[in-house]
Every structure is written in C-alpha cells, then in structure tokens.
Design goal:
This protein has helices at 3-14, 19-28, 34-37, 51-54, 57-72, 90-102, 104-109, 119-128, 130-134, 147-150, 206-226, 282-291, 305-315, 332-336, 371-380, 391-399, 405-408, 414-428, 448-452, and strands at residues 17-18, 79-84, 110-115, 138-140, 242-247, 256-259, 262-269, 272-278, 301-303, 321-330, 345-348, 351-353, 364-366, 369-370, 384-385, 389-390, 437-444. By secondary structure, the protein is of the alpha/beta class. The protein has one domain (3-457): Rossmann fold (3-Layer(aba) Sandwich), CATH 3.40.50. The strands form three sheets. Strands 2, 3, 4, 5, 10, 14, 15, 16 and 17 form a nine-stranded mixed β-sheet that branches. Strands 1, 6, 7, 8 and 9 form a five-stranded antiparallel β-sheet that branches. A three-stranded antiparallel β-sheet has the order 12-11-13. Strand 11 and strand 12 form a beta hairpin. It is globular, with a radius of gyration of 21 Å.
C-alpha cells in the first residue's frame, strides 16, 4: 500500500484528519513513511543535508563543548549524551572519534545513546558506529521517541530510567561488522557542493557501562515485553548527568496549520486529497495567544504542539545536565514583525516545493521551529534557558580559543586548507547556515555562572 492509499483509507474510515496526522503518516509511518523507507535522504545524493554532512568540524567543535559541559558538571564519573534523531550517525561518529583523540578523560566517562526509530537508519547507525558499539561506548534504544504516539500525551514522560529493557546490546550483530573498526567517512564532506539553497536538514570502563545496562535490562525485561509505550529510554539511571542533543529534530515534528478559517484538516474527494477547515481547538487558540500571531486572511501559521510535548518529555529526563537544540526557526517577536508566517515546506532532491500533497511519503515535510514556544516550554519544566544564539555565534565562541584547529589539523596542503575553509565558512556565515540556524541551550542542576561561562555562549547576544 502506498502512503497516499494508506492516508485515503484512514480518512474514509475515520473522517477528515488534522494536518499534523497527515504529516505524521507521511514522515513516520513505520512501513511507508519518509524516514522509515530508506537511509538515503541525507547528503548530496539525497533530499537534504545537515551540518554534519558539511564537515567533521561540526561534531569536533561540539565534542569540545561537551567536554567543557562535563567539566562544568564537576567531571562526573559517568555522563550520557543522548542524541535525538541521529540520522546516519555522522555527528555521533565525529564526537566519539574526536573525544577519544582529544578529550580522553571525558571520553572515558561518556556513553553515547542514540534515539532513532527508522529501521533503515538504525541499520546504518550500526554500521557507522560499529567500533563504538563493540567497545560499549554507544548504544541504540529499541524503544524510541515516536511522534505518532507522543501527540496524544500531554503530561511529561514518566521516569523511564527504572525500566531499561529497551536498551540494545552495545555490540554489533554478526551481520553488522567485524572486530575491525568501521571505516570513517572523510572529514571533508564536500560542503562546497552544497552552496545552492538546499534543505539543511546528539571514568568508567565500557565493561562497567555494559554491566549496568545489562542489570537494568534484566530487572525490566518482563515489563518491557508486556508494555511498550514508545517513550525515550536512557542508557543510564536518571541521576547520571546527561546532555540531550537535538540537531534538526524539532523542525521535522508534525505541526497543526491554522488560518483565519480555523484549523486545517485533510479530506478526500474521489481519491484525491482535499483541504477543509474546522474550528480551531482551545489548545491551538491558546498557542496563538501565547507564542504566535493570529493569522490574517490568506495567512497560514504553524502550531507546533507536538514539539512542545516533546520538550516536556525531554526535560523530564534531565535531573542534572543540558538540553542543546540546533535548528532553523524564529521567535514570536519576528512573527509580530511580519516574518516567518507560514513556513511549512516540502523538500526533494535539494529543491523546495510548496505542495505537501504532491508525493506523500516521498518528500521531506518541515516547518521552522518556534523558539519562543520551545524555550518557554523548557522553562515551565524547571529548566534554566539561555538567550537564543545563532549557529554562527555558537560555533565562533567554541572555535575562537584555538582558531578552529579542529577543522584544519589534518590539512597537509594549501589546497586542502582552502577547501576546509570554504566548508567552515558554510557553517558559520549568513550566506550559509550560520544565521539561519539557531541554538537553544537549557540546563538543570548547574550553577548559572558556570553555564554562562561556556565558550559556546561567549559570542551570544540576547534576542527578543
């Protein structure tokens, strides 16, 4: 059954569906959804690319920032990085490889957890990170964040650290690799070829980590076999400090579409998808009052209610640590100024389209992140939220101290250095991704002066 046939069948059985449900089915259906069907959406040959596709320096700079966060937390014996939507695992690979080389003490304490629902991408992760899985430094979760079910959960996620049967073995399966390390992708990933407007779319021994996970798995085995609710699973107990990393995660979550006519629903007429409007729900109207603008005639506004619920659940996993979200988006103040009204877009082969119904399940659907709503939701959960930064400010702050040696260390020839300079420019300049992407940093259980002293915040300026 094709995605379109599946959507039409649901409409015929249940009546018109909210646009968010349509977006969920297009992107996340376990069999025919865009993110489930393959692992080829990323990079030059796919539909979009992320910062990690540009150059390994993105992960290397974040590894440097993660090491600093670990030290700010008091260099604890254990720390977990939990990456949401890790894709092919390039970012995780860069962070783990660079930490191993440059920050051995941090690397010794680190366990890297990956939350990925797509079967195809999970297989790719097993290959990309085979060496780190085998060493017990990284693990996938069998239960993962699932937008298809989260949209019905309003309350924060329960303390899932008490039942970790969803954590997979930290080793690779026999089909996934051997004792030899997996060959790393070239740190220079051809960013110069991505200059056209495109969709830019994470000290204990490994044995100690593995034994702890095994113990939790044994204690929770019966419960997990009888009850699976698709919540985010941590590889460590809740009291272990954590850094939750989300790069281009929130922009791909389903949104409601609102206009002066109400909320958008998708109907079906003679096998064709059609738009109809229904009265907006109280929750949608409350969102417009608090975090957006009421659409004028002819305007459409996205209400990212699923993203807010996701932030509630994510914040519930942080007893002590950080949430770091990097994405493209806007603030309420910018919407009041007349910008970012109607940001839903479809991407296919690095081309932006305006018709989300053209090829259900075969194109990426995305909407800009409302950072005002996301930050306020985190704050309501008791997180201390820092002023919003641009990706340029954040990366310049991290890289200034050593003049971006993380990018140029492996360059031997002037031509290599020139190419890397272009790729780095793409990450930090307004013409590339530097001003389009923004950085949200929230913390809990960390002294405020220590957080504001992080190098990534040193270039930041508060925005409205």
């Amino acid at each position: 059954m094709t995605p379109r046939e599946l959507i039409v069948r649901e409409i015929r059985e249940c009546g018109p569906i909210p646009f968010s449900r349509y977006m969920e089915l297009c992107l996340y259906h376990p069999e025919v959804g865009y993110y489930s069907r393959s692992a080829d959406q990323f990079g030059k040959a796919g539909d979009f690319y992320t910062s990690s596709d540009v150059h390994a320096v993105f992960g290397r700079l974040l590894a440097r920032q993660f090491d600093e966060m670990w030290r700010v937390l008091g260099s604890p014996e254990q720390i977990e990085i939990l990456e949401l939507g890790p894709g092919r695992g390039l970012f995780a690979q860069d962070v783990l490889d660079w930490s191993e080389k440059k920050f051995p003490e941090f690397c010794c304490a680190l366990h890297y957890s990956l939350v990925e629902r797509s079967p195809a991408l999970r297989e790719r992760l097993r290959l990309t990170l085979a060496r780190h899985f085998k060493a017990g430094k990284a693990s996938l979760t069998t239960e993962a964040y699932d937008p298809l079910t989260l949209s019905s959960r309003v309350a924060p996620g329960r303390s899932v650290h008490e039942r970790l049967g969803g954590v997979e073995e930290s080793g690779v399966s026999p089909a996934d690799g051997t004792d030899e390390p997996c060959a790393s992708e070239n740190s220079s990933r051809g960013a110069a070829e991505y200059d056209s407007p495109a969709h830019y779319r994470g000290p204990r021994s490994a044995r100690s980590w593995r034994s702890g996970v095994e113990q939790c798995r044994a204690e929770a085995k019966n419960e997990c076999e009888s009850h699976r609710d698709d919540t985010i699973i941590r590889a460590a107990a809740l009291e272990v400090p954590i850094i939750i990393f989300a790069n281009e995660f929130f922009d791909a979550l389903p949104v409601e579409i609102l206009s002066a006519q109400g909320g958008l629903k998708i109907s079906e007429e003679n096998g064709r998808l059609a738009e109809i409007w229904a009265p907006a729900t109280p929750e949608e109207l409350e969102f417009l009052d608090c975090y957006s603008v009421h659409p004028e005639v002819g305007e459409r506004i996205e209400a990212p209610l699923t993203a807010q619920r996701a932030m509630i659940e994510i914040a519930g996993l942080v007893q002590r640590g950080f949430i770091l979200a990097i994405d493209y988006g806007h603030t309420r103040q910018e919407q009041l100024a007349g910008r970012h009204r109607g940001t839903l877009a479809a991407y296919r082969q690095h081309s932006e389209g305006s018709n989300p119904y053209e090829a259900p399940g075969e194109q990426d659907l995305t909407a800009h992140v409302n950072f005002t709503a996301l930050a306020d939701t985190a704050a309501q959960q008791g997180m201390a939220v820092q002023p919003l930064l641009t990706q340029s400010q954040f990366l310049l702050g991290i890289g200034e101290q050593n003049q971006f040696s993380d990018a140029f260390e492996e360059c031997r020839l002037p031509q290599e250095r020139a190419k890397v300079a272009l790729q780095l420019k793409h990450l930090i300049t307004p013409e590339g991704m530097g001003e389009t992407f923004h950085v949200l940093l929230a913390s809990r259980g960390v002294a405020g002066e220590k957080v504001t002293g992080l190098s990534g915040l040193s270039f930041g300026k508060q925005r409205s």
